[in-house]
Amino acid sequence: MMENFKQAFQDEARELLVELESALLELDQSREDREVLGRAFRALHTIKGSGAMFGYDDIAGFAHNLETAFDQLRNGELAATSDLINLTLAAGDHIKTMLDRADGRGTVDEQRTASILANLKQLTGSSDGPVANGPQVAGPLHGEEVHDWRVRFRPSLDILSTGANPLLLLREMRDLGTLGITLDTSGIPPLSELDPERCYLAWDMVLTTPAGAEAIRDIFIFVEDHCELTIERVEEEKTARAATAGPATAAASLRVSVDKLDQLVNLVGELVTVQARLSEVAGRRDDADILEISEAVDRLTASLRDNSMSIRMLPLKTTVQRFHRLVHDLGIELHKDVELTIEGADTELDKTVLDQLNDPLVHIIRNSMDHGIEIPEARRAAGKSPAGTIHLSARHSGANVLIRISDDGKGLDAQAVRARALQRGLIDEAAQLSEAEIFSLIMTPGFSTAQTVTSVSGRGVGMDVVRRSIEALRGSIDIRSKPGEGMTVTLVLPLTLAIIDGLLVRVGTSHFVLPLADSLECVELTSQDIKDSHGKHIAHVRGELIPYIRLGEYFRMKNARPEREQIMVVDTERGHYGFVVDEVLGDHQTVIKNLGRLYRNVQVVSGATILGNGTVALILDPHRLVQNVIQGMSSKTRRNRSKDPQNSTFKKETIINGA
Amino acid sequence: MAKVILTVDDSASVRQMVKFTLSDAGYTVIEAVDGRDGLAKLTPGVNLVITDLNMPNLDGIGLIKGVRANPASKFVPIIMLTTESADTHKQAGKAAGATGWIVKPFQPQQLLAVVKRVLG
Lengths: 659, 120
Prior knowledge:
The complex is a heterodimer. By secondary structure, chain A is an alpha+beta fold. Chain A has 21 helices and 21 strands. Chain A is elongated, with a radius of gyration of 38 Å. By secondary structure, chain B is an alpha/beta fold. Chain B has a 5-stranded parallel β-sheet, with helices on both faces. Chain B has one domain (4-119): Response regulator (Rossmann fold, 3-Layer(aba) Sandwich). Chains A and B meet through helix 1, helix 2, helix 3 and helix 6 of A and helix 1, strand 4, strand 5 and helix 5 of B.
């Protein structure tokens, strides 16, 4: 591509030389004509500038001297003498020979170059050296040592008038290393005096980078006249760190008993509830002072909540590392060769969740080793490698953690499972079940397909216990399998059990909370929309067809339908679904209280919370709700109807467990 | 959508180099041959102006003043191309409201780095 540019430069430079020549000849006629002088100057200027850009350093350096002379002419520091004009004409011809040489034709008389420049120097009395060719934008200087830099950047009020964007500068800082930014908003004037075209903000940053002060300063080079910038290296901290290297590591973490943490989280939960009351009261009073305090408390509570929650977070590693040993020992016992691979072990989970996760995970792995993975001879016969693999992976997905345990064993045979379930009387002969539903049967109490009972997996009482523990954690479990290829168990678990961000909605006089992490958007549903869809529970949301569930109907609530309803679009395991409510009230920090023992079979409600005015709102589990509705529609023959909340209307005020 | 850059230069080879480099990086480039042409081609869709300072008809300083005087474009970043020998020009450009500058000669990657700095 550079070749193309070079050709373009050659063509252009030759044109410019013609232009220079004609300008010089005109200049000879009228020595004071500034317009003509300008033309000559620009020709030389462009030859110099472009020449250097495309690698013609000799031409650029040569033209630079001529350009300097013509700059002086333009500024009246020098008179256009015929000597100078003649010399420049000769110099123009010389540039032409230089261009020819660059094009591979002829040679350049270097002595002539020197003599023209010497004559020029004599005429002008000065001559600069050739153009320096230093890079303008310095990259980060990669030293070996990483330093902390404290950078304070306070742009002047009018920085935006230069078209500068402080955000981009901060981003560029971030590219240099690890950056902590604090925004200083103290300069913002009252609203009445605020000019939206001015920048009132300042930033304090701590940058950890191998780059030097120059590289940092370089980022702000365009705005240096429009800001106060201080860059200082943080020295003392490093020395302090070095001096106290021993004890410092001990102080970096602290052992605290779980009880204390639980207590902290409980207190934060109470605080969140009280805070909800405060904002409720403040909202009603319409007193700006109280409102301001309430908002401040709101913000503090939210960050206190996040902080105390994060204290309880532990990486999954702490639990799953032990599994290597488990797999190894079991392999010996069962005469199977199995390798366990773990991915995403750094994924963090609430300690309570993590503790209760150990047993189910152990059970699933045991199950895979015992019933899933075949003995080496059988694997060889099936054309697989004699060593089996169990892969455990974990990752975050919204407010949930996805844990997947897959093996490459013999998998589940849907027909065998179905036959077994029939034999045990778990399903009807006529039941139409999807594959996923059939597989979930193995988690029904008293189900076992293994032909032999071993000491490892016990007597097939396992998977139902696993399901119960996962559901107690408000998680869900899903089994996928292909005969001969293996089985995958997917656990979806909430990050935390105590407090979530929810969306408060109203249906009639009742309030419900939907988890905010799953909520996508909120759209209106008018009577006209309902008419347009001919009574089908389907809404058009920006070209997407979204089936919806009317919560009022689902819970058999007898209230008039308002003219305008709201659909909360929620991302569920089964795609996007809408929940129709009367009104969306806003986000709500939701302290989760468990429902009483009586309601443990109510699956669509994951708990309850207390609102600011003291009333109770049920926390819905959108995934279960959708699943429940789909199952309710698809299989009327299901016997297990007692678990279906459609048949059990309940008064929710009575079901809070001693909250 | 691709960001639109207006390059104003009386040197066709510089324009070509700027255009090629920026088009290659995914920007849309509009060319103008001098300040007057540049002001005429300054539509509301232009996200950045790159201008030479020495040009016939209307020079770079005049162009920068013109861009800043128009309420629709007063916050559009402007990069000026200067030469090391012309510090007074640089000062005049900054005073007129230029956002940044590149010293000629420059390499394509230097141009991209500066464009990224002011345009994101």
